[in-house]
Amino acid sequence: MNQTSNRLFDDFAKLMTDAVGMAQGVRREAETAFRHQAERFLTDMDLVKREELDVVRDMAVKARAENEALIARIEVLEAKLAAATGGHVVAAPEPTERPKKPFPDEEAPAADED
Asked: What ranges does the record give for the region Disordered, renumbered to this chain (predicted)?
């Protein structure tokens, strides 16, 4: 009888081990399904990922710094122009479109030569 009860306990332990393994598998599948549903929900809401937001924020910071540098450069050039013309500088009208020509320190796009 002792051997029979040991075998019974061994079978019961094996059954419980298999049940725990199956429960863990079901848990992993449920987590995966939930994660996919959440990702699809967030994708449908047109939300951006954190990495994309960080990239755009960095671009905005860089653009703001470049804008401030250009404003300072314009102020220096306006001061030089005012000093050269004796303070008689006529303000240019506000442009309605962006100039078609590149600025002096920008390179013109290379023309395709065949």
From this structure: 88-114
> Which two tokens mark 112?
């395709």
Residue 73 within any structural domain of the chain: yes
From first to last of its 114 residues, the chain has per-residue pLDDT tens of 567 778 888 888 888 888 888 999 999 999 999 999 998 888 888 778 899 999 999 999 999 999 999 999 999 999 999 888 887 766 666 766 665 655 555 555 555 554
Please state the pTM of the whole predicted model. 0.42
Beta strands in the chain (DSSP E): none
Listed residue (103, 75, 100) closest to 89, CA to CA: 75
Inter-residue contact 81 to 89 (CB < 8 Å): yes
> Is residue 94 in a domain?
no
